[in-house]
């Protein structure tokens, strides 16, 4: 789980430091930078996999750099503190770029990886400041995080920040077709033909469903998905991949003893959107970090309680950390005050922090409900929670 992330000079994120919970809900008006925070996490993931492709996919460095940066001192940087499965000590990873104001691009300058108080490696300005304990380490002057073969702690930390992050913003036609249509973003995550992990746009959902349904040690997960869908539509009996892998069918109970089977594209948009979230939450192998942008889109408001329950269950089981953005009062009311992070915009710069103390106290004393932060009393940010660390 990511405990804290600091991002500097990425889009509207001039300098934000955010602590994260097992479930973190980002709220704020449109245009304040909620999506930019998610895009920063996705960009870091993609950059660590294929740097040039990641920059191109985001529209080039000029689209990525904060418009209000101080040209004389500005750096684009990411600093994450996170837990890694099997490691008792917290991991800290830092990646930094120098911004060239003349050419509006970022040039790699520094990188480090720390396990507790032990620096595994550190480089700055093309020089090792802490050489990794390898006989023949890669040359400094380039990101080497994914190249430290022989240092298992570095390898598993790299997997967490690349293969372990899924970022989802499902389109209206999600799961509406069976063919895989690769995009730059999904291609970064590997060959969908041989993997079962759900891609960002859910376009290889059939492989993901197969991965869930054929994992006999956790076969209950497909039953859990059907049970959740049944809370939306009581007639649902099954979700199955055809034996030849060509399509997905959804079973519906008709009468007392008969079942009618539909192709998945025949289901409603809300049904498909909900199922896409369930596939992401239950994919095999699981991803430690999952982000969802406005998961309420297209889903019947009465079903959002079910979705919130699924987010909580997955996070509290330790399977995945959940980070989501929302504009939905119906969804927000199912989360606790400590899970909320408020996003505001001040002078074209995004601020992210805890809820203002007076609103936090009102929620804790049940003088107001969380949904009123989006309808009655706009969420306000605690200014003391936005100060970056020294």
Number of strands: 16
With strands numbered from the N-terminus, the spatial order across the biggest sheet is 2-1-4-5-6-7-8
Helix proportion: 25-40%
CATH-derived architecture of the largest domain: 3-Layer(aba) Sandwich
Mean pLDDT: 90
The biggest beta sheet is recorded as: 7 strands, antiparallel
Calculate the terminal CA-CA distance, rounded to whole Å: 23 Å
Strand content: 25-35%
* CATH third-tier fold name of the largest domain: Rossmann fold
What do we call the CATH homologous superfamily of the largest domain?
P-loop containing nucleotide triphosphate hydrolases
Evaluate the radius of gyration. Answer: 22 Å
Report the CATH C-level class of the largest domain.
Alpha Beta
Name the overall outline: globular
Structural class: alpha+beta
| Secondary-structure element series | EEEHHHEEEEEHEHHHEEEHEHEHEEH
Compose a concise summary of this entry.
The protein is α+β, with helices and mostly antiparallel strands and 390 residues long.
Core attributes:
Rossmann fold, alpha+beta, 7-stranded antiparallel sheet, 16 strands, 2 domains, 390 residues, 6-stranded mixed sheet
């Amino acid at each position: 789980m990511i405990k804290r992330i600091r991002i500097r000079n990425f889009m509207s994120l001039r300098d934000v430091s955010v602590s994260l919970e097992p479930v973190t809900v980002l709220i704020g008006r449109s245009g304040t930078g909620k999506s930019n925070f998610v895009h920063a996490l996705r960009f870091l993931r993609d950059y660590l996999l294929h740097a040039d492709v990641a920059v191109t996919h985001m529209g080039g460095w000029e689209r990525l750099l904060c418009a209000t940066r101080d040209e004389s001192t500005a750096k684009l940087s990411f600093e994450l503190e996170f837990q890694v499965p099997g490691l008792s000590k917290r991991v800290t990873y830092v990646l930094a770029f120098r911004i060239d104001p003349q050419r509006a691009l970022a040039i790699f300058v520094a990188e480090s990886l720390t396990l507790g108080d032990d620096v595994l490696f550190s480089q700055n300005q093309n020089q090792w400041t802490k050489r990794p304990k390898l006989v023949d380490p890669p040359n400094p002057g380039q990101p080497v995080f994914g190249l430290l073969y022989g240092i298992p702690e570095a390898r598993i930390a790299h997997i967490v920040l690349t293969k372990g992050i899924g970022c989802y913003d499902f389109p209206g036609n999600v799961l509406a077709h069976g063919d895989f249509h690769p995009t730059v973003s999904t291609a970064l995550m590997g060959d969908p033909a041989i993997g079962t992990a759900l891609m960002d746009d859910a376009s290889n959902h059939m492989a993901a469903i197969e991965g869930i349904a054929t994992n006999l040690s956790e076969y209950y997960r497909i039953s859990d998905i059907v049970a959740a869908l049944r809370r939306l539509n009581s007639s649902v009996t099954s979700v199955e991949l055809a034996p030849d892998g060509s399509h997905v069918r959804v079973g519906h109970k008709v009468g007392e003893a008969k079942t009618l089977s539909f192709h998945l594209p025949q289901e409603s948009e809300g049904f498909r959107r909900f199922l896409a979230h369930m596939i992401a939450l239950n994919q095999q192998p699981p991803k430690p970090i999952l982000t969802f942008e406005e998961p309420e889109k297209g889903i019947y408001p009465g079903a959002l309680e079910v979705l919130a329950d699924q987010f909580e269950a997955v996070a509290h089981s330790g399977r995945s950390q959940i980070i989501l953005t929302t504009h939905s009062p119906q969804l927000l009311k199912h989360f606790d005050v400590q899970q909320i992070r408020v996003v505001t915009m001040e002078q074209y710069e995004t601020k992210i922090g805890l809820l203002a103390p007076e609103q936090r106290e009102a929620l804790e004393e049940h003088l107001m409900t969380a949904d009123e932060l989006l309808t009655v009393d706009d969420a306000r940010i605690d200014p003391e929670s936005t100060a970056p660390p020294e």
